[in-house]
Specification:
The structure is a single chain. The chain is mainly alpha-helical. Helix content is about 80%, strand content about 0%. It folds into two domains: about 1-35; about 40-185, Ferritin, CATH 1.20.1260.10. The protein has helices spanning about 1-20, 25-35, 40-70, 75-100, 110-125, 130-150, 160-185. The radius of gyration is 23 Å and the shape is elongated.
């Protein structure tokens, strides 16, 4: 009896929440409320720029995580590269959140080019110094991100997006400086 009662409550609870979310609305009003407002062409372009950057950040995080497994003789490099991969994931989240705030659908996957780049990195380690390759590839990735951020800046219109990209650019410039120092030491 107790199990039957709990099962009934478990089935009824989600239905009651669904009813609350559209209580008092006609079916057509509910459909309008659930349909996102159409975006202007300008905002669509901004979402496209943010999604392009999101894909780059997805690829960068994957590349940096892979690069962290490459170094063979520098113990401190692996944690630094893993931390950078984690940072890229957090920055990707900021980009995706901004797309949602604007009313767009955020990108969830990287680009095919990013996958090819990671494969190229793996091949390079066969003939080169693994530690040096890891640092150089991550440094190249950060320079590419900076280039793409600079391209995206003029294509954004909202002050919030401009500030987000400016913050990301500052972070990327800082990482490039740090990676250049590591590269010189290797």
């Amino acid at each position: 009896m107790k199990k039957s009662l709990l099962a009934g409550v478990a089935l009824a609870l989600p239905l009651s929440f669904a009813a609350c979310s559209s209580a008092g609305l006609t079916p057509s009003e509910t459909a309008v409320a659930e349909t996102p407002a159409p975006m202007s062409e300008t905002m669509q372009k901004e979402v496209a720029e943010l999604n392009k950057l999101t894909r780059i950040y997805i690829d960068a995080a994957a590349l940096y995580k892979q690069a962290a497994d490459i170094p063979d003789d520098t113990k401190s490099l692996k944690p630094a590269l893993l931390e950078l991969a984690k940072e890229k994931n957090m920055q990707r989240d900021l980009l995706q959140d901004r797309v949602l705030e604007i009313g767009g659908k955020p990108a969830e996957h990287g680009e095919a080019l990013g996958t090819a780049h990671r494969g190229f990195t793996s091949l390079r380690t066969i003939v080169d110094n693994d530690t040096e390759v890891a640092v150089e590839e991550v440094l190249r990735g950060e320079r590419y991100i900076l280039e793409e951020l600079n391209k995206a800046m003029p294509n954004t219109v909202t002050p919030e997006t401009k500030q987000l990209l400016a913050n990301l650019r500052t972070d990327t410039e800082r990482e490039i400086s740090r990676l250049e120092q590591i590269d010189q030491a290797v």
